[in-house]
Structure formats: structure tokens, C-alpha cells
Amino acid sequence: MGRQATVSSRDLPEEIRGRRRTGDRLAEDLASAGVRDHRVLAAVREVPRDLFVPDHLRHLAWHDTPLPIGAGQTISAPHVVALMCELLELSGDERVLDVGTGSGYHAALLSRLSHHVWSIEREPELSRQAQDNLDAARIKNVTLIVGDGTRGHLEAAPYDAINAAAAASGAPPTDLEGQLASGGRLLVPVDGYDQRLVLTRRTGDDLTRRVLDPVSFVPLRPD
Predict the structure, then answer these.
(1) Per residue in 57-76, pLDDT tens?
(2) Domain with 88 in it: what CATH number?
(3) What pTM, to 2 d.p., does this model score?
(4) Which of 8, 76, 103, 182 is catalytic?
(5) Strand pairing of 180-191 and 67-70?
(6) What does DSSP assign to residue 202?
């Protein structure tokens, strides 16, 4: 058999080469900021964030900053998304629920770290745009649902990991905790005296919660 030809980066279109350079720089910045999981950093390099922001903001897509995406929602800063992905400790074979699809970027990173992602969004227009974004990025292992994220998605439960990109009031939603598989993890911002990430782990019938870093997310709104 003949030797398979390798493709030099010089042979790639400039648009792709530019994404590789900017993705590499962003991953390096996140590593310097404390992200340690090499699979998360690889996902940051691979997922083209510029496809998940509005056209007029694409020049800011690779900056470590949140950006508006419409309907009063934002795409979170990459370091926040990377931190949350890292905290879920994904190995590649998990079933994941993503609450608050937004532009689809968080689901896109999770798709690189797990087997399949179900992502739920209450705003139909955002969900439609997220599907376009995921299609443009050629990501196939994400299923989008329009609905109330506080209730999760019982049809595909239980999940090995659940990520919420909107803040619950007072405590993690009981419906989400109830849809965790044994050994599963739920990560959700929770409003109290301030807003912090809360990581819930299920072991059999037992749940343990750990309060983590301060964050700032839009509210998780039930229907």
C-alpha cells in the first residue's frame, strides 16, 4: 500500500489556518489561567468559537470575554466554559445534559468531551440558531430540545453529567438532581447571598453538594 499523504498547514485555506492559530492562542491563555485538563484545552482549540457568535462580533470571538447573542442572553467567556467542562471530569463516553443552549458553544465543547449531548433551551429562536451553528461546525452528536431547562429532559435520563449555564435560585433544581445517574455530576450556578457554582454528585441514592467559585450567569427561568 502507498504511504498516505499528510496535509501541511500551509496547504490549508487561510480561514482554517487562522482558526488554528487563534484556537491555539486561546488554549494557551486558558492553560496559563489554570485550566489543566488537556482534553478540555484540545476542545477549545478544535471548536471554532467564531461560528457561535453573531456576525458583527466575530472579530471578538477568540477573546476571553462574554458576548451578547440575542434574546437577552450571552455566550460565556471561554475561561468560564472551560472551567465548567473541567469540573465535570468527562472521559469521553458520558451522556450529558446541557441546560441553556444559547448559541450552542458550551454544548459544542461538551460534544468533544463526551459520547452524546442533549441541550435544552427555552427560546426557540436561539435553539434554531444554535442548530445552524452546530451544523456549520460539523458537530453531529448534539440533540437540541426547546423547553423548560429547570425540568431537565426526562426522556433521555439518566445522565452521567448535567451542565447548567444559567443560575438557579437558592439551590440546584431537584428535577436535575433527580436525573443524575449513579456517579453522575451536576454543575449549576446558584444564587444566594452571591452567585456560585455548585457541584452535586450522586452516589446511589445519596447526593453531596460542594460550593465552588463565584460566577455571573443570567437566571434560570422556569416556564
Answers:
(1) 999 999 999 999 999 899 99
(2) 3.40.50.150
(3) 0.91
(4) 76
(5) unpaired
(6) E
